[in-house]
Fold these 3 entries.
Entry 1:
Amino acid sequence: MTRFRHILSCWAIVLCALATNVRADTVALLDGRKIEGKISFDAKSGLIVLPKNQPSQPIKLDDVLSLSIDGRKIATPKRRALLVNGTLISADEVLAISETEVRLKRPDGSLLDFSPVLLQRVDFRVSDKPDAQAAPPVNFVGVMTATGDFAEGDIIGVDQQNVRLSSVLFGIQEFNLANAVQAIQYRSPGVSRAAYEVKTVDGSLWQAASIAVDRGKLVLQIDSIGKIELPGESIATIALGPGSTQPLNASEPIFTLTPDTTRDVNLDGKYRTVLLSVRVPGNFVPNRPVRFVFIADGKEIARTEPITSIDGIRPVVLSVTDRKSLSIKVTAEGSALIGVAGEVSDARLIRRG
């Protein structure tokens, strides 16, 4: 009996450990809520989230700030093509690059064709450590070799074996893709204006003008490429892109407020959400807590708990639909003889859909 109780006790410890390690998919909404649970793309017009021991919740894509599917590892692609709009497409093979067409064979076996004017760079050797991935200089055009050297010139042809380069100094050159080429670069990158960024398990990062759900698939609209359909099980993350957000003040991304000072922001009813991070800088002693207070159209809509310099950065999400103005101020507790200030950073305005 004693041994049996010991076995039960051991299993209880194991089950408790497993329970505490259970993780879930996460969707953050533009109204500040965060929901954890199994995410499904089977809804007709949005997502379905099934929280543990709770009814399922339908979610409209227009309400999503970010989404992360737990446990989906991102693969390292064999090849990848970077477009001028920031889209990064994983490929098993680069079948052709000509004056009229780029053709890729994607990891799922499908083919993708698009215009070469969209192509910024192709990586023929991809590191499984992104921080160690070498890339040509931004303004460089030509071939980056496997040894890290650069051959500058116009790329005049690419097939499955070789790259042909026309150089002012060296004339026509050929580089073998199998052992001599790290990357080829056609032009400098452009600016992404995508409304959404979607990362998939094959290592692709799609810059989408719009997204929709259709019978288990996520449908992306990519500028100049068109419609891309991705199975729900291939999605790793979704986030708002630069086309959906703008900095609160690009010239002052970080600003400091002393107690009883105010920063006013003109919203003019154009925005849906304000995202920002707040903290007390570490050079202040943690003896005087502060609160960040947020006032929209003259009415307080949120305030933080008291925080000090040892509490780190706190994210804040504010719903500001139809609001004309926003004021941010800091109030402090304790003796005014102790100096303190609050810092606001990474403040972004989310445009109305």
Note: The chain has one helix and 33 strands.
Entry 2:
Amino acid sequence: MSKALTTRELSPAVTASLLLAALSTAGDWIWARWIPDGAVLPGVIHGVLFFGALAFALGWAARSRWATTRLLWTLPATGLLLAAGFYPLAYAVGYLTALLLTWIAMWLALALLQRWARGGHETALRAVGRGVIAALGSGLAFWAVSAMWTQPAQQTGYGLRLLYWTFALLPGFVALLLAQRDTASSR
């Protein structure tokens, strides 16, 4: 039987969400000021930097230098692949659909890479299950706030964008990081 979640167990997910939300909000500000819509190279660079920050967040939450090191050399490459794949996908299926599909693929990849970085102490099926939960929860949250990117009339202040990003990231981080509790308690 599972025990109730504590603030201590949720704090890494909340902290990771807030830090990545701050980075993403700063990215939104940079994009709005200096980068034209549809610019591919800045988008790919953005993906690599975002995944580098994800590597630090997931490695920090795992409290493992080994996991952090493994994630630091695999996640930026994953970000490169997903960001580079976004543009042809957006051309084929539309911007918002490509954004959501890439977001879902991101959480699935994160769950599998997190499993690998932590030494494979869980089954691949369980990692995929966590990735699906992260993708569904975070994907629904991301979709709920997606108007800030897709509808110019919905342009929001950066404080609200920080809140939206945090809201979109939190379900994914909860699904990924709470598994550490379950995996550690089953050993």
Note: The chain has a mean pLDDT of 87.
Entry 3:
Amino acid sequence: MTNIELRKLVTESVKYPGTKQIPKASVCNEGFPGTFNLSFIESEWLKEYGGQYIDFDHDYIVSKIQPCIRYQDWETIKSDPVNRFRYLGVFEMASVTGMVSLVDGSKTDEAVSFSIENFYKFLTETVGLSSEKLRITYCRGGDVSHLTKGKYKFNKEVAEDFYIDEWKRMGIKESQFISDDTRDTLLALRIYGLSTPWGYRNEILYEHQGKLLDIGTFEYCKYRPIFKNDEIVDLEKWEHACVVSAVGIERLLMAINGFAEITDCDHIKPIKEAILLEVKNKDEEQAIVLTEGLRTVHRIMSDCKGYENLSRKRKEKIRKISNGIFDSAKKLGIEINDIFLKKILTLNSKLQSYYPELSDSIELVCQEINESKKRIEQKTDYGRVKK
């Protein structure tokens, strides 16, 4: 299955009634100040509810495919060949049944049942994954202090995930569930200091070439945090509802196609191959680093429209990514120049033709990478001028 084919299937999948398709958010949005977009809906929630994630005054039911940049993955890509196979500099997250935010919390049961059933059918019927190879993590419940490893210190017993039986109703066997007592399955949240409902997460894993591959997530919220002196001290039942199912596009393509590497996806592999044709040293690992560095900078520049528009912390991150680009190019024995950059960036734009802004930003990316090279030559440690 190709990337384009999967994107079409996700877009056309059965959605919660009233779901609206919305455009992606910029990877440089204020839902994630100081870093890049990490998740699915924070930017829109921030605009829609003014940061009052916990107090909905109207329903908001949407779907989209969202580019994400999890900056910590960059170190894995650069220096961890064992785990690099499943990480990208920029990846895409897509809702399957919709992001469902409802004023009326009494609809939670119905929204969860609808979402799990149609999420399961999408994975097993629409894209053809084996039900027997699915693994579902769930929160076994327990004390908040224990479940959050001391992140939140108040004592409160949280129940086991309320909706495990919904997965069982789909045919998931007891042996396919993985019990967990960490924040991987308890949504114990306070997004950048803003009040956020708490709830539960099921990580959707798939047996893939002898390993468990994280291909998606199902989440719902049940609790309202109680504050005292700006600290969370208790939980109570939340009166609203929030339910979402989502997949990682590239991870799912890996599972569907049996790819050994996530960079084998058809909108990425040609870039790696084009780089290897240009370089002296045919080092595939370094070609992957260069591929992901260039794809990531291309995405950031196309969204922010220039280095000067980035915050200080985002500038630090893009400088480190640029350093990685030049380090990998040196190991590959190639000079980063405009001819090489335009060839690779044009290819990246064609492979993601559904994002016309990538083509429009090629000159801007070339300018940024050239300026980055000058900054690297003039400074060290991202700001200290060489003595």
Note: The chain is about 40% helix and 20% strand.
